[in-house]
Amino acid sequence: MRILLAIVLMAYQIITWAAPMDAFEFDNKEQEKIFKKLSDELRCLVCQNQSIADSNADLAKDLRTEIHTMLQAGKTEEQIKEFMVDRYGDYVLYEPPFEPMTWLLWFGPLVIFIIGLFYAREFVKRQNSSAQSGELSAEEAERLRNLQMELKQKNANDKGTKKEDGQS
Amino acid sequence: MTEIKQNNKSMLQRFMPLIIFSLLVIMLGVGLTLNPRLIPSPLIGKPVPVFELPLLNKDGVFSDKDLKGQITLVNVWASWCYACRQEHEVVKQLARSGLRIVGLNYKDKKQDAIQWLMQLGNPYQVIAADESGRIAIDWGVYGAPESFLIDKQGIIRHKVIGPVSDQENYEALMEAIKTISGNQS
Predict the structure, then answer these.
(1) Cβ of A94: how many Cβ atoms within 10 Å?
(2) pTM assigned to the model
(3) If you ran DSSP here, which 8-state letter would residue B150 be given?
(4) Which residues of A132-161 are buried (b: 16+ CB within 10 A; e: fewer)?
(5) Which site from A16, A56, B114, B160 is most exposed, i.e. has the minimal number of CB atoms within 10 Å?
(6) Considering just the CA atoms, what is the radius of gyration of chain A in Å?
(7) Which residues of A touch B108 (CB under 8 A)?
(8) Class assignment of domain B52-184?
(9) What is the dihedral of CA B146, B151, B154, B158, to 10 degrees?
(10) In chain A, whose CA is at the least distance from the CA of B143?
């Protein structure tokens, strides 16, 4: 129990240490909300799997300061995003912009889903039609014959063992 | 006849997973061989950002206007950056070959930077000191070393991410220099 507690406390330590929090002051709640949103949405370029908000990297710190300064200067969320994209490209955005270049990215999963639906429908339809027709394909007939043979054999064997059972 | 057709269909169906799998493997394979650290710069083809910075080793300032008139390589470096040390010999060699090289000293301490140059040699015609790293943000710098090739009009024509001494980087830079000097001479 004590060990468990130690582990939990240690994990808590790591978590608090990993999320850098600078002492930024904001004019109002709205500004703070935009700041949080932006630093969560922008990718840290040095440590690419972290957002600017999560990263301890020097550049991420600088960019947080920059966002804060721009917010204080009255810049809007859109303007700040544009500032970042102008310098670092679309790459800095975790969510890629919606444009012809990225259509495959945005619609790809939907297209695959539709193809999947189509295949599923075909599959169900085929199942239904073979069930309705009541006729067996050559393969199925073969399988049926084999099963029947097996069953016969098994019955014969069972009878044999039963007889032995009766005797004992 | 219908049986053959059915056979063909089931053949295709049987191989469908394999085909999809192969496509996935190819796509993932291409993705794996790309270097995620290479982020294409949106600044290529655009004029250098407007800036003014103090010089590192003497009095005076350096601004974007000073980047016009001559093909220049702006080399972003710092004394704390290991890869900068690696590329330094090649930067010196480029300077000897007649290319104008301007240093952008990035988030460095003045003393450290000057000491570093005294130890390793100074290939830079001028060095602008960006102690806070604010100007480097305007250049889209996300790590040192990075180098920008500027043409006579002050347009950024090529960006090297990482040491210029890497063979691939070096060849691409040479190619870019050849292209712009061919167009502008």
Answers:
(1) 10
(2) 0.70
(3) E
(4) eeeeeeeeeeeeeeeeeeeeeeeeeeeeee
(5) A16
(6) 33
(7) none
(8) alpha beta
(9) -30
(10) A46
- Percent helix, strand, coil in chain A (nearest 5)? 75, 0, 25
The answer to whether B41 faces chain A, any CB pair under 8 Å, is yes
Each residue's pLDDT tens digit, B37-58? 677 788 999 999 999 999 998 8
**How far is the C-alpha of B89 from the C-alpha of B70, rounded, in Å?**
23
Q: Where are the domains of chain B?
A: 1-34, 52-184
Beta-carbon contacts of B120 under 8 Å, excluding residues fewer than 6 positions away, are: B85, B88
Q: What is the pLDDT of residues A107-137, one digit of tens each?
A: 889 999 999 999 999 889 888 876 666 677 7
* Mean pLDDT, residues A153-166: 72
- At A168, the pLDDT band (50, 70, 90 cuts) reads very low
Give me the amino acid identity at B66: D
The A residues from 81 to 140 touching B (CB cutoff 8 Å) are: 85-89, 91
Q: Measured between alpha carbons, how far apart are the two ends of chain B, in Å?
A: 72
What pLDDT is recorded for position A20? 56
CA distance B40 to B31: 16
Query: Token digits for B155?
Result: 């347009």
In the numeric block, the tokens 């710069």 are attached to: B41
